Amino acid sequence: MQHQEQHDQEAARLIAEAYTDDVPAVTRYRDTTPPTPTGAAPVPQPGARAPMSQRATDISVMTLSAGVAALPLGGGAALVLWQLSSVDPAVLALAAAAPVGLAGALGIAARMIGRAVRDGAAALPPSEVHHHHTGPTLVQNTAYDQRTTRGVIARTGDTHRTR
């Protein structure tokens, strides 16, 4: 019973304090004391790595992983060049220029396809159609669907309306 009385007294005090004009409402608080350095050094990690922060450790591991992943590519390129060492220099120049020519041709084809799609879209009739009738009143309901979904994983912003 005493516990309930304490809650009631605290509630009454808070309500009275809320309705007084002399208590300013605190909307934010900023700690102006400068941060104190702890002097803690990074903990030495097991193995041959020097002590460093977690972010530096993550970047180091990512760099080492990228270097290991590049080894098969470098080895494959070395094998191809070793095999091509006995090839005629003119054939070697053609083999080196082929990927560049292929990339250029693909770029030109993509540009032409994009231009054709753009021209085809411009040739379509306008999407908004007006009907003008003379005679008795005509009621026409037109439904359109305007979705704003973008991305691989996205929520559908479904705004299906009837005019």
Features:
50% helix, 163 residues, 2 strands, mainly alpha, 6% strand, flat, two-stranded antiparallel sheet
Characterise this structure.
This protein is mostly helical. The chain is built from three helices and two strands. Strands 1-2 form a two-stranded antiparallel sheet.
Outline of the structure:
This protein has 163 residues and is mostly helical. The chain has helices spanning 2-18, 54-83, 89-123, and strands at 143-147, 158-162.
**How many E-type strands?**
2
Radius of gyration: 37 Å
Mean of residue pLDDT values: 79
Report how far the terminal alpha carbons are from each other: 65 Å
Question: What are the SSEs and their pairings?
Answer:
Layout: H1 2-18, H2 54-83, H3 89-123, E1 143-147, E2 158-162
Antiparallel strand pairs: 1-2
